[in-house]
Automatic annotation (TrEMBL):
The keyword Transit peptide applies. It comes from Stenotrophomonas rhizophila. One of its GO terms (biological process) is iron-sulfur cluster assembly. InterPro entries: TrmE/GcvT-like (IPR027266), YgfZ/GCV_T_CS (IPR017703), YgfZ/GcvT (IPR045179). PANTHER family: TRANSFERASE CAF17, MITOCHONDRIAL-RELATED (PTHR22602). Keywords: Transit peptide. This is Folate-binding protein YgfZ. The keyword Transit peptide applies.
Amino acid sequence: MPDNLPSDFAGFSRLPGHQLLSLSGADAAAFAHAQFSSDVTALPLRHWQWSAWLTAKGRTIAVFQLLRLEEERIVLVLADGDADAIASQLQRFVFRRKVRIELRNDLAVVASFTAPESASGAAIAQLAGENLELDLGSDALPRSLRIGAADAVAAAADSADIALAWRQSDLRYGLPRLDADQREQWTPQQLGLDRLNGYSVKKGCYPGQEIVARTHFLGKAKRALQLLRVVEGTTSGTQVHQNAAAIGTVASVAGDLALAVLPLEIAPEPLSVGGVEAAHLPLLDGLAR
């Protein structure tokens, strides 16, 4: 560990794929509330929640952490990148609202498989200066996420092993990590975002809200994510077979773990992915916020 690494980030590894967007201005919260799937205006200051941005047809563009830091400042933590493209798309809906959308390259994200020092659940802790700490785990699998100035965390190692382990732990919690080919493919219900409290069926309109609400209230959700142990090298989009018939699709993969969208009710016969038998694994609870 480099000697010049600030104490707030000692023992943490940088997650280079994570990017941040800032929404600021008098209409920031109202704009986020109208665009994203979670109930933003009900979120207390200095708290965060899971949220998603959907197409008009209710398909998921991105899943992210939404941090409500101040009355006029919201930050999105995008684990799967593409923050610049998402900012450009969001800008089209600003119109006359008083909101500024910025890619925050001056901030960086670091992580550790340790319990948070001060943060708990959805409550955000402010460490020294403007550094933030978030609780991204549970007793079963403690995890801490910290956000700070990019130059301050520059000495934190970019570890491919830690990045893979973090992605795998996301999948173990049922948090989908969507590669480009899986965006705009799945509804929030199919991605299991109800397990994370990642969408609201009670708040006002947002893109895709009608589809989400109809699916929820009419009980039409027939598929959801399940965790599988697969062969290394499996890619998202690969079909899941049972008795030689395709019954689902791999939506997210990390090493030998995969989240697949499968029927809620399936026969007990073995599943296979890429011609190799895949084992069912239990999902961890405790990441809902």
